[in-house]
Design brief:
33% of the residues lie in helices and 22% in strands. With 491 residues, the protein is an alpha/beta fold. The strands form 3 sheets. An 8-stranded mixed sheet has the order 8-9-11-10-14-18-15-16, with helices on both faces. Strands 1, 2, 3, 4, 5, 6 and 7 form a 7-stranded mixed sheet that branches.
């Protein structure tokens, strides 16, 4: 989609979107449409009982000279601050079946340049498709919107806002969606690592550690997850050095289980195909790093993803096996389907000891329990630092990627006690998301501000209500992380 920002005047062809307040109160751009139309705009809206309530749509054709223009009017209600990104996404979703290839969105006069940039992002998200593996015979014949024009009173400011921040961050989110949607026979650990190596083209520094190097580092918890797979595990470190030369970096860490069968603790076959998305945390980190690089963020950030396939096999890890993590702590692996935390614990320890970040955040599709707790609307947030948790919640509001903080407390530690090792990797049927976070906390140390975000309910969805979410993979996290870095770690 080609995106441009233009001055606000009625379009002579293609589809158009305008906004209206309650009872069809139009601003100057909307009135220009009404006054230029040879049809009775107000009468048509009245016949449709359209009163411009927030989020309601009115669709019509109006004549602009000799041309009929498809027009969608979006209601913004009475006093609400419009969510332009979501509203435009909803209108675009309505347009898609019609095969319109050109769309002009007319921003209200009271909107800001950032509002206009968000409107462009909403349109891009709503038009996202993943059809890389469809043949011409099965591809939908419906044309896509090819040209998007955002018309506003400050076109230059809107363009700057979009190109300097919102556009690159959206690029990262869409890339993350592609990763989550790609099947595991194509995106297995080595292939995934090779894709990430190619990101050096946009300015990232990428280092790949194979199993031999991980073994030398003592990353046995991580490596144990992949021993039942024929595909080699990979640990990928991406660096963006956009800040001061000697400034300590922040660290972003993602779980990248490219397929999770559960291992010997085999998952039920029903919907197991979803487990191609068990690398959603890594996708979020990759998407975030792409956004940082493309917008040339003035910060030093290290992104780390542990890539592994969890399969049952004669060589696979057994329930009851004991592994020694990179930290030296021993783990009684009572359930091989609680594998993500085994990957993350070694990556977290690597980050603390080798990178020494000022703060770090990990993201993972870690527990089904978080879906029971929060459904598909919020990610679960856990942190050992109140300031960091507050920063993430603030970034969550601004980025529209919602989080909800849950507790960490020493009272939960007893659920991880093992008679055979320093800890076990499951805590039992209660407080499943909390005990997973308590497990990870043991590999962070006391001096590093850390947060864990469980995105199992928001990183991949089979049913969606948000018009911006069009496929199984949502790309959740890429925007949240960029917002957090921008608000707290850029000069």
């Amino acid at each position: 989609m080609k995106v441009s920002f233009i001055d606000n005047k009625p379009a002579e062809y293609g589809a158009s979107i305008i906004f209206a307040k309650h009872n069809l109160v139009l601003d100057s751009s909307g009135r220009a449409y009404r006054d230029s139309a040879s049809t009775n705009f107000d009468a048509a809206a009245k016949a449709a009982a359209f009163k411009a309530e927030s989020g309601k749509l009115f669709e019509s054709f109006i004549m602009m000279g000799d041309e009929a223009v498809r027009l969608i009017v979006i209601g913004t209600g009475k006093d609400e601050k419009p969510d332009y990104e979501r509203l435009v996404a909803k209108a675009v979703k309505r347009l898609l079946p019609y095969g319109e290839t050109l769309l002009t969105v007319h921003m209200p006069s009271e909107s800001t340049p950032e509002d206009a940039a968000n409107a462009a992002v909403g349109a891009r998200l709503a038009t996202y498709r993943f059809d890389a593996h469809k043949t011409e015979a099965t591809l939908t014949k419906t044309k896509q919107i090819e040209t998007l024009k955002i018309a506003s009173d400050d076109a230059d400011g809107a363009k700057q806002s979009y190109e300097n921040y919102h556009g690159p961050v959206c690029d990262g989110q869409l890339y993350a969606r592609d990763l989550v949607n790609t099947p595991s026979n194509i995106l297995f650990p080595v292939a995934y690592a090779e894709k990430l190596k190619a990101l050096e083209e946009i300015g990232l520094k990428v280092e790949i550690l194979g199993e031999k190097k991980m073994k030398a580092l003592g990353m046995n918890a991580f490596l144990g997850v992949g021993v039942g797979s024929e595909r080699e595990s990979q640990f990928v470190i991406m660096r963006w050095d956009g800040g001061e030369k000697d400034a300590q970096p922040t660290a972003l860490i993602g779980k990248g289980v490219t397929f999770d069968s559960g291992g010997i603790s085999l998952k039920p076959g029903n919907n197991m195909w979803d487990m191609k998305g068990d690398m959603g945390g890594s996708a979020a980190v990759v998407g975030a790093m792409i956004g940082l690089a493309k917008r040339k963020a003035k910060a030093n950030v290290v992104g780390m993803v542990g890539l592994v396939e969890n399969m049952p096999d004669g060589k696979a890890q057994n329930p009851g096996d004991i592994v020694t993590s990179m930290s030296g702590q021993t783990i009684d692996v009572q359930n091989t389907d609680a594998e993500g935390r085994l990957v993350l614990c070694d990556v977290l320890h690597y980050a603390v000891t080798k990178i020494k970040p000022v703060a770090m955040i990990d993201l993972a599709t870690l527990t089904g329990a978080i879906i029971t707790s929060l459904g598909h609307e919020h990610a679960g947030l856990f942190s050992n630092d109140d300031d960091l948790a507050g920063q993430i919640m603030s970034a969550s509001e601004t980025s529209s990627e919602k989080t909800w903080r849950l507790p960490l407390a020493k009272e939960y530690d007893k659920l991880l006690d093992s008679p055979f090792a320093d800890m076990k990797n499951i805590g039992g049927p209660t407080a499943g998301s909390i005990t997973a976070a308590q497990f990870l906390k043991r590999f962070v140390g006391k001096d590093t501000p850390w947060a864990h975000i469980d995105i199992a309910g928001v990183g991949m969805k089979n049913t969606r209500n948000d018009p911006r979410e069009t496929t199984f993979g949502t790309g959740f996290g890429a925007r949240l992380l960029n917002r957090w870095v921008a608000d707290n770690h850029e000069g």
